[in-house]
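Notes from the 1:1 (GR / supervisor)

We went over the backlog. Supervisor wanted to see one worked example end to end before approving the batch request, so GR pasted a single chain during the call. The sequence is below; no edits were made to it. Supervisor asked that the structure be written out right there so they could see what the output format looks like.
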Amino acid sequence: MYRLLLFLSVTAFQSNAQTHPLETLITAAREHSPRLGALLEAGLPGLAGRDGAAVWGQEFLFAVRADGAATVSIDREPPLPMRRVEGKPYWYLLRTLRLGVTHHYEYFAGGRSLGSYDVAGYNPDSYPRAGVARGVLSNQKTLRSRVYPGMAANFWVYANAGVDLKNGAPLMVWQDGETIVGNADLLRLRLQIVSDNLVAKKLIPPMVHVLISPGEGGPARGVRMRSIQYDTVSERYGKYLLEEILPEVEKTYRIRKDAYSRAVAGASSGAICAFNVAWYFPGQFSRVLSHIGSFTGIQWQPEKGQDGGYIVAHRVRREARKNLRVWLSDGADDIENQAGSWPLQNIQLANSLKLKGYDFHFRFGESAHAIAQGAMDLPESLAWLWRGWEASRTEEVFEMEAAERAKPLFRVKIANREAW
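Structure output shown during the call:
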């Protein structure tokens, strides 16, 4: 499965405050404008074999690069023909689709699939609102690590408008930070837009958001550091944040030290990473946002005595309850492979949190291994995670909500075949 990030130019948006780059793109598609080819070509380098979608309101633009005629199946319906951009190897289709849900799509050309993914029907707070002050994204910074010798990683900081840098700002750390900066954020979480809107509505405090990319280089040549950093069940990544990344951030931004005012978030391997940071360092982070978490055996190495992510749910059940507030989300069509079952492990973790009385919320939808559901839910999940936060406080004992306490444990049923 491949994802395409439609890197759109923000220059027009900056010079013309009335036109958002996504709106420009979709308008060009609606009008079959000659500009469409240039917009796609400039924004989509190296598209061969990749797929993508862009959303503005109820209009969903599906676009793919292919040498021959391309089609797209939306929500597993029969494939629809796509229109070729004049003089370019791009194919596109504009459709009006339902909001408040996720949509699955798959591209085909030359008798084969070009890839599939899910896209969010974004909610209103995922769009820029008039009069809302925008935060500021820092320049990219690069840090060489001692915790992971030989590794270097990029990070950015997004500070919401009104952030209190005199007394110290609340903190939220996001993994896979390169997907939350610039134009990439527009096609995924839309964190910057959402957080600014929620700050304006006083549903979350103005925060310092630290956006960290996985490192490159390091102790294992030829092996991606992302999985080593994110999927390994240990305190090492938390030490990396606390001893290296955050001290570097604090050279410019004053952030609060209390766990009550600190959250950590991620998707996929970044989600288990986020949970582990709070699990090993509950005195530093108390709020966790986990999308499509890889609580599986990706970094299970029995020859080294190293457990995989599947152990997390069991530790939650067996060990003393920690003061954490956790939002989990996953979908029934998430991954099933040699490393394990993403849906079953997320359900397992949700039940573990419930059995131990944690303040948690579990959203289980239909989505595949995609950020679509997390993006659609982001306004709700952030508001839930930070509900009740007060600047004058430094601690709170998180208790399970009464509505959750009254609900039963999650139960599994086979939905796509006979059970016998």
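Supervisor's comment: Residues 236-249 form the longest helix (14 residues).
Batch request approved.
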